[in-house]
């Protein structure tokens, strides 16, 4: 958001904060209860962190995944695009396309 020149106001911060705090607590619970590997949970955590702008946390979940599916890769690649980190987005996309098990192609369109 800030990278695009927009600054979040107090209402934006206040509305996102509970979701992020709850998401972090759920993530801690998932780790503590050893509910991984689980595509649904881990992909949802990547998506949650990405939507909150916590790309390092999203990448951390991705990096710790024992198994990754197309949704895992797409979630993180999309997150980088969503926050205008095009270099990282391109690197992840290239890494995905080099995998022997990459059975599908991912196409991204960037809106202005």
Outline, from the CA principal axes? flat
Helix content: 55-70%
Could you report the average pLDDT, rounded to the nearest whole number?
Answer: 81
Parts with pLDDT < 50 across at least 5 consecutive residues: 108-112
CA-CA gap between termini: 14 Å
Number of discrete helical segments: 5
Secondary structure class reads: mainly alpha
Keywords: Repeat
GO molecular function, one term: RNA binding
PPR repeats: 38-72
Pfam families: PPR
Please provide a written account of the structure.
The protein has 112 residues and is an all-alpha fold. The chain has one domain. The protein is 64% helix and 0% strand. It is built from 5 helices and no strands. Helix 2 packs antiparallel against helix 3, helix 2 runs parallel beside helix 4 and helix 3 packs antiparallel against helix 4. The longest helix is centred in the N-terminal third of the chain and has 23 residues. Keywords: Repeat. One of its GO terms (biological process) is RNA modification. InterPro entries: PPR_At4g14850-like_plant, PPR_rpt, TPR-like_helical_dom_sf. GO terms for molecular function: RNA binding. This is Pentatricopeptide repeat-containing protein.
């Amino acid at each position: 958001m800030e990278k695009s020149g927009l600054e979040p106001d107090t209402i934006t911060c206040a509305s996102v904060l509970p979701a992020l705090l709850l998401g972090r607590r759920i993530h801690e619970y998932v780790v503590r209860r050893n509910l991984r590997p689980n595509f649904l949970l881990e992909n949802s955590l990547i998506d949650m962190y990405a939507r909150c702008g916590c790309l390092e946390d999203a990448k951390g979940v991705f990096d710790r995944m024992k198994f990754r599916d197309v949704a895992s890769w797409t979630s993180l690649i999309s997150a980088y695009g969503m926050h205008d980190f095009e270099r990282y987005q391109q690197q992840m996309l290239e890494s995905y396309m080099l995998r022997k098990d990459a059975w599908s192609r991912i196409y991204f369109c960037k809106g202005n």
